[in-house]
Amino acid sequence: MLEILGVIVIGLVVGLIARFVMPGKDPGGLIVTIAVGIAGAVLATYGGQAIGLYAPGQPAGFLGSVVGAVVLLALPRAVRRG
Q: Tell me, what DSSP letter sits at residue 51?
């Protein structure tokens, strides 16, 4: 139970930092921010493993998670403009 709470808190922090780095109007509230943070960490973990930054089974670090969340926030903006 404590691990799940930790994931939620870290997801919130990562999501908030990603939204700060990518200013602008993004839909969603607190739950979406947490989901973006968690999904960014997952994206960074598997993307980093695919390009050799992380060993298999090794999770992404905090900075990598923020980068993953920023990428997730930037994708819809790029699709809307394109």
A: T
